[in-house]
Specification:
Heat Shock Protein 90, Ribosomal Protein S5, domain 2, 5-stranded mixed beta sheet
Length: 543
């Protein structure tokens, strides 16, 4: 009898290939957090506590726990999600999440208590890679059905990292984004921060119903498009596509980069995504937080979203252009130009001072830094010498240590010393060094007055185009403009100038750090204080 040809799988390769989808700490942490949220005890919310340490990630929950038999099922690749099979709305879909730890580490330990019994198991990368012929590989038993008084629940421990970027802040944002509106009854804390979904501020809402033809594909759903008073961060910018409350993607449906598109957000819940059984699935298993545009349902949905987003975007564009032409904007524009000119003059002067300070430091460091020979043509730089320099050193001096990547340790770049500020000090004349900024800066600072609601910050900085935005709706500015002279009054102008100067002082260290290899951000607080003092003195003579 001829034996049949059957489909087989190399278990170890399959396991590690799926682990590769979990390439970041945020993805890994969320995978185990979502497992906890999908498995509560009957009628009880789940509490998950995550600790991301230098040598270990630990996630502990008070969920339903796992028996030894359930642990066996947990480690089954591509197995059916039990909660989904029971009709519950859960995130688990592909049965691959148990391998997530091996996307960033080499050891996974699971400790779970249920019905008064404790089980602890461990899986190591070496065990997986040892299954060279493709056969199943065992999970190590540490504790088997041991009677326990511990509370019901599960602890996940991930150790032996193969990544150095643990990204705690990014993990918190990622968890909060995924928690969304669906898991508000549960509590998740990451490194003592309680994660909460916070929707951006909204100044306008548009709702759209699909045409009968579109509804025949996506269902009778409602698209809600909201308008933020300020540009949104990438993770909040776009329409949240949900299915029965579970988030699957945030999309601008092709409008990325268009004028005013960064102000748009909203949501649409499409239950038919869960019900779709097309040959080309609506979801993929790469944890990319993207739907599959090759799926017919997804393609129709994204086209409908794009059409309605574009209508709202165009309305915002017309509104913004009208604002710029308004009498108020014209009046404030003149003040904004004066402020911008002052800040750009300061920025230019400060760059030159910083370069001279670096050159001076380079002369002390010898040939490796590019020593500077004395010259009768150069400037007098603070240091050893009998001439008087129009500059003096500012900021904290550093030792001879070196700065490397995280975690701190030896590096290739010597740490830099203090900066230059106007003043007098002894020094000697140096020629110009060829050392300079890492890149040329194109375009200067701009000031823009906008109405962004009283809840929005008093000011903010748009890094992409170097715009300092002053919020006219902030209560402090509203009060200052309430006098008889309004925005032409002395109180309003002084306040708006102070706000611009403070915002500039805060962003200046960031801008310099982007340009110079040797700008030490440890001096940032000192620079903020000095910048405010320097710019306000300059303003007193020119404004």
């Amino acid at each position: 009898m001829v034996s049949p040809i059957i489909v087989t799988s190399h278990v170890a390769r399959d396991f590690l290939q799926n682990a590769a989808y979990f390439s970041t700490v945020p993805k890994v942490v969320w995978e185990y957090v979502s497992n906890s949220l999908d498995n509560p005890r009957e009628g009880m919310p789940v509490d998950v506590v995550v600790d991301i340490g230098r040598n270990r990630i630990r996630a502990e929950d008070n969920g339903c726990g796992m028996s030894r038999q359930e642990l066996r099922r947990f480690f089954q690749m591509h197995g059916e999600n039990i909660q989904r099979a029971r009709g519950r709305r859960v995130r688990g879909r592909f049965g691959t999440g148990k391998c997530a730890a091996f996307g960033i580490a080499n050891t996974l330990r699971v400790r779970s208590g249920k019905n008064g019994k404790l089980n602890v198991v461990e899986l190591r990368r070496a065990d997986i890679e040892g299954a060279r012929s493709g056969e199943p590989f065992p999970v190590r038993d540490i504790v088997v059905d041991e009677p326990t008084g511990e509370a019901t629940g599960t602890v996940i421990e991930i150790e032996a990292f193969n990544t150095r970027h643990l990204d705690v802040d990014g993990t918190i944002k990622y968890v909060e984004r995924h928690l969304g509106r669906h898991h508000q009854q549960h509590t998740v804390a990451v490194n003592n921060h309680v994660c909460e979904f916070v929707e951006p501020l909204c100044v306008d809402v548009h709702e759209f119903d699909p045409s009968p033809q579109i509804a025949g594909v996506v269902g009778n759903v409602k698209l809600t498009v909201k308008v933020s008073p300020t540009p949104l961060e990438p993770e909040s910018n776009g329409i949240d596509v949900l299915a029965n409350g579970l988030w699957h993607e945030t999309t601008l449906a092709g409008l990325e980069g268009r004028e005013m598109s960064r102000y748009l957000f909203g949501e649409v819940d499409v239950p038919t995504l869960e019900e779709d059984r097309s040959p080309i699935p609506a979801f993929d298993n790469t944890r990319s937080n993207r739907l599959n545009p090759q799926n017919h349902l997804v393609a129709v949905l994204l086209g409908w979203i794009a059409e309605n987003l574009e209508s709202v975007r165009l309305e915002l564009v017309h509104r913004e252009r009208a604002r710029r032409r308004s009498e108020e904007a014209q009046r404030l524009g003149q003040e904004a130009e004066r402020l911008a000119q002052l800040l750009n003059d300061d920025f230019s002067a400060f760059q030159h001072q910083l370069q001279r300070a670096r050159r001076s430091r380079g002369a002390d460091l010898g040939p490796e830094m590019g020593s500077v020979a004395p010259s009768g043509l150069g400037e007098v730089i603070p240091g050893a010498g009998d001439e008087t320099s129009p500059w003096k050193l500012a900021g904290q001096p550093h030792g001879e240590g070196e700065r490397g990547s995280m975690p701190p340790g030896p590096g290739e770049e010597p740490r830099e010393g203090p900066s230059l500020i106007p003043g007098e000090s002894p020094g000697e004349r140096h020629s110009q060094s060829e050392r300079g900024p890492r890149r040329l800066v194109r375009g200067g600072f701009q000031i823009d007055y906008r109405r962004e609601t009283e809840e929005a910050p008093r000011s903010r900085y748009e890094r992409d185009n170097r715009v300092i935005v002053i919020n006219l709706d902030h209560p402090q500015l509203v009060s200052a403009a309430s006098g008889p002279d309004g925005m032409e009054g002395r109180e309003f102008k002084q306040l708006s100038r102070e706000i611009a100067f403070v915002e500039y002082a805060i962003v200046l260290p960031y801008e310099l750090a982007q340009q110079y290899d040797y700008y030490d951000v440890e001096d940032a607080l000192f620079e903020i204080r000095e910048t405010i003092n320097r710019v306000t003195r300059r303003a007193a003579t020119v404004l």
